[in-house]
Amino acid sequence: MTNNKKLKVGIVGLGNIGRHHLSYLPDMDRVELVAVCDSVTERADEYAAKLGAVAYYSPDDMFAKSDLEAVIVAVPHYDHVTIAIEAFRRGIHVLCEKPLAVHVNDAKKVIAAYEAAKEQHPQLVFGMMFNERTFPFHRKIKEIVAGGELGQLVRATWINTKWFRTQAYYDSGSWRATWSGEGGGILTNQCPHNLDMYQWLFGLPERISGHAHIGKYHDIEVEDEVTAYFEHENGMVGHFIVTTAESPGTNRLEIVGEHGKLVYEDGKLTLHKNTVSMLQFSRETTEAWGHMETEVSEVAVDTTVPSGHAVVTAEFVKAALDGSELIAHGKEGINSVILANGIMLSSFIGQTIDVPFDYDAYQRELEERIRTSKFVKAPVQQVKSDIEGSFSK
């Protein structure tokens, strides 16, 4: 029998990403949007009136007075932690925007709160809004890598510099690109999806060497250009190269294994398949400059399948109502935070670090930068903004 029950959902945070969620939530068959919450009262009132929901101006007030069963958390990063923990305490399902937290210790607090709440609410659902896992090309890459078609992996290089941001973007919010307001730059804001994708495909590395440049191209106090080098237990190495300063930018992912190479760039996925293992060929050939034959083909990808935020939310709703699987479990959110913090800690101390590393040391580094910050933000500017333009291409 089909379960036609609707999930009573509220949303906290009606900024750019929160309003994007509101663009599809009213059309979802199994969602009843009962509450919207924002500290800007006029904004909360406006969207509540448009959508037939009740307006609230603080998460605690919304949790106490509404009868919502699930909440989407779409507020600035530091507040993800307190709001998610309070929701869990009340037995409310949580779908959290990225990142789970600014630093690993806070991510661990959220996960601990979820585990504690499950003792009283065993069916409690905790999801992360890692919508890029639903992208057709990303799904196909995951399928190929997980299926072992490339054999033993030796290298993954991801150049993603299509994150161009202007100074006007950084000046559009007093919290943006500050240690106290956002907790970091490109790794905390633009790249949690990429970092999640990296660990989803390859797992966490054993060692990290990070090189982060602070305010290199913008008047900000956080990182706007990062290059990282990863070493994995199986011998694979990884490169992660990102910036908000390049235009035109590049989004190119190369994954090399003993049986060939997979390249994703410009909306095309190309497989270079060796006729034999390159590692075996290297060991056994008598040719000093020998080369294997390679077959090159474009991988067919069905780009018509639904993807994006609405798909993640729909699966979250099904998980809450039917007990089905999530696109990304909330507990997985810690891994991208580990990568981001590890890159920055390595850069701060100028050393390669092992994973796991001293999470307290990173938190101390962050808090010291907040404490000693003398950075003065420019007056907040109104900017022309289309949230669709911010999504990874």
UniProtKB/TrEMBL annotation:
Residue span, GFO/IDH/MocA-like oxidoreductase domain: 138-262
Gfo/Idh/MocA-like oxidoreductase N-terminal domain sequence ranges: 7-118
Any Pfam family: GFO_IDH_MocA_C3
Family annotation (InterPro entries): Gfo/Idh/MocA-like_OxRdtase_N (IPR000683), Gfo/Idh/MocA_Oxidoreductase (IPR052515), GFO_IDH_MocA-like_dom (IPR055170), NAD(P)-bd_dom_sf (IPR036291)
Protein name, UniProt field: Gfo/Idh/MocA family protein
Source organism: Alicyclobacillus fodiniaquatilis
